Amino acid sequence: MIRHHIAATALAMATSFCFAQTSPPPIKEDFKPSVLNQPGQEYPQVNSQGYARFRIHAPAADSVRVSLGLGGRGGTKLTKDADGYWTGTTAGPLDEGFHYYHVFVDGGKFNDPGTLNFYGSVRWESGIEIPAHDQDFYALKDVPHGQVVQILFPSKSTGTSRRAFVYLPPDYHKDLNKRYPVLYLQHGWGEDETAWTNQGRANLIMDNLIAEGKIKPFIIVMTYGMTNEIRFGQLRQFDITPFQTVLVDELIPYIDANFRTLTDQPNRAMAGLSMGGMETRLITLNKPDVFSHYALLSGGIYSPEDIKDKSKVKLIFLSCGSKERPERIKTATEELQKAGFNAVSYISEGTAHEFQTWRRSLYQLAPLLFRD
Amino acid sequence: MIRHHIAATALAMATSFCFAQTSPPPIKEDFKPSVLNQPGQEYPQVNSQGYARFRIHAPAADSVRVSLGLGGRGGTKLTKDADGYWTGTTAGPLDEGFHYYHVFVDGGKFNDPGTLNFYGSVRWESGIEIPAHDQDFYALKDVPHGQVVQILFPSKSTGTSRRAFVYLPPDYHKDLNKRYPVLYLQHGWGEDETAWTNQGRANLIMDNLIAEGKIKPFIIVMTYGMTNEIRFGQLRQFDITPFQTVLVDELIPYIDANFRTLTDQPNRAMAGLSMGGMETRLITLNKPDVFSHYALLSGGIYSPEDIKDKSKVKLIFLSCGSKERPERIKTATEELQKAGFNAVSYISEGTAHEFQTWRRSLYQLAPLLFRD
After folding, report:
1. Domain check: are A185 and A117 in the same one?
2. Does the beta-carbon distance from A39 to B151 stay under 8 Å?
3. Residue B234 belongs to some domain of the structure
4. B183, B100: one domain
5. What is the pLDDT of residue B18?
6. Of A209, A246, A319, B35, which residue is the least packed, with the fewest Cβ within 10 Å?
7. pLDDT by residue (tens digit) across A181-231?
8. What crossing angle do the helices spanning B355-365 and B202-211 adopt, rounded to 10°?
9. Are residues A116 and A173 in the same domain?
10. What is the pLDDT of residue A173?
11. What is the pTM of this model?
């Protein structure tokens, strides 16, 4: 069940970007550079309605097209001016938040030189940000900032040093006797351990929540959720064992040995988006003595019968975008609640299988963690 | 003087990549994917002689060219096969180590979709790695690894939170009473605070030196060395004051408050490559009570008369590649030694104004720092 759901929603992500409305309004000429542009770059731009405008220099090209912008596979076709710049605007406004895209130049797939790259779809992709009405919660503000620590931890099972990023709350270096609960947070298919901070702004979400006193500070650990090359169509045959070994037998002991963590089960949570939700579900069910808080973000559901010992589960959090399958999340949450679980659902309004859904989900999830 | 030198060498870097020899040997067909390729990507490739081979998919393009590969501005022209792939090999072997490059597709400048990107020339550029005979010193090995910590520190003078990366040695979290000396390490023109770890592998160089017991562990701090958009030709008018304020009045106090540092002048060093050397020279001369160890990597020289109080300087380290102006470095070092300074020079054999020179320079510099 869960595997089919993941495959369906992620495939939808890869091929369609929904518009906020089908009959586009007149385009306002208040375009500004996207906040994700490389230093000094004027394009791509975004206007106040959520339209995106692209501009690519390729004077001798015959065809330039951007993958973003239409409800299907067509994207946005650019047209050339006398100076060799190709320009085009999406046919309608895009959903709020972060979108991956790329550029086809005479049939070759490249990134937009104007913008930063983000790892998704098993490649570094161009990214663009449509300002959201609620962007304040992940904005860079003048508040105390936590650290994002890159670690290389030894992994005997995979025969290498593996990378993870560790978010430490702003007060971590103040009181050297204080210990913290830990959330293990997984990316989606085709992404890696950079996604939750680069695309998701998880560190800024935490900094802001902590500054406002809305959460109990905790550590977040983000690592790469694959142990071999996985093609998208192979997810049905996915074997969780190798990654579970890396996470539970190698990473967790390393984190507990190198950071001031609370090491008991009630103080350890796991969450993941999309494929990371599938991994979270499998690992939490396999290892009920390791994690106490479970969260699946656009990543499927738990049924009451999945869980053997209800007393070991302190929270189940299920979320998705309103453009995904929200009824399924709501129904599953109600069933869990009826069975006596502390289950919470969250539906991100007006968003699909994209990072704005998951930024908002983390913002909703964080205050529910480690509350005792 | 120093400003002219920087401008000349960096301009050379931007327009030429020297070959190891002028009459190329027969090409060995033992090409392998570059270690900097994106996951699963077969191209670009490198052979055992240092030739690079590129392969780009652009079926409808009329012209594809790679910026790397000839002694001048031409680069490597690729030719198209029946499947729409453009392939080409450099006309000669490249220098050992890391090289930036990009791809021209029908006149537009793009990155190679096969490889990772690195910030240089004020843009994220493609990177390729030519295996070096001495690559062991910056290899990822099964040794204890330090952490690379991303911090966001408040900067009143620039009105924002600025980013820095902090390398912490592997034992930092073991003995919570131990304090460490600090090296402030600057990137070159067009690069940013990611360069020393991404291109330079500074963290792996340190991990390996510490594992072999060759250095006293210390902290490295890397931040962005510009406070406004600087075009290359404007370096002569460069004003060090804004960055000096960020570094000395904002970053150093933040580091000393948030990490277990030794905060006295004898335990603080500054080094920089190219433009970062120019900055190092100006700031160390302006602030003799802040830094005690100075290092310019392809970044100019000090003259004895530059320094007012010799007793405050514990080390001057000057380096460059043998394909730069090594005589100037050697002569300056001799003059400093004659004047009674503890001055050391290092010339990287067979390399130019590129990162292999600076990786080796850091490897030579680190054991000389904080020795007493």
Report:
1. no
2. no
3. yes
4. no
5. 45
6. B35
7. 999 999 999 999 999 999 999 999 999 999 999 999 999 999 999 876 556
8. 30
9. no
10. 86
11. 0.91
Query: Which of B131, B163, B198 is the last residue in one of the domains?
Result: B131
- Contact check, Cβ <8 Å, B105/A110: yes
Q: What does DSSP assign to residue A230?
A: -
Q: Are B142 and B288 within one domain?
A: yes
User: Measuring CA to CA, which residue among B283, B271, B202, B201 is closest to residue B239?
Assistant: B283
For residue A107, list chain B residues with Cβ-Cβ distance below 8 A. 57-61, 84
Tell whether B102 and B145 lie within a shared domain. no
Exposed, middle or buried: residue B159 (CB in 10 Å: 0-12, 13-18, 19+)?
A: exposed
Q: Which residues of chain B, if any, have pLDDT below 50? A: 1-19
Closest CB to B58 among A105, A142, A150: A105
Domain that residue B161 falls in:
137-368
The reply to whether B84 touches chain A by the CB within 8 Å rule is yes
Over range A29-52, report the average pLDDT: 97
- Chain A interface disruption, residue of B38, B64, B145, most A CBs within 10 A: B145
CB contact under 8 A, A145 and B152: yes
Q: How many CA atoms lie within 13 A of A365 on its CB side?
A: 33
Residues paired with B56 in a beta bridge: B86
Residues B113, B198, single domain; the answer is no
Q: Which residues of A touch B229 (CB under 8 A)?
A: 39-40
Q: Do B110 and A109 touch (CB under 8 A)?
A: no
Q: What pLDDT was estimated at residue B23?
A: 62
Contact yes or no for A351/A322 (Cβ under 8 A)? yes
Select the more confidently predicted residue: B8 or A66.
A66
What is the pLDDT at residue B49? 95
Q: Which amino acid is at A241?
A: T
Residue with tokens 């380290």: B317
Number of domain units in chain B = 2
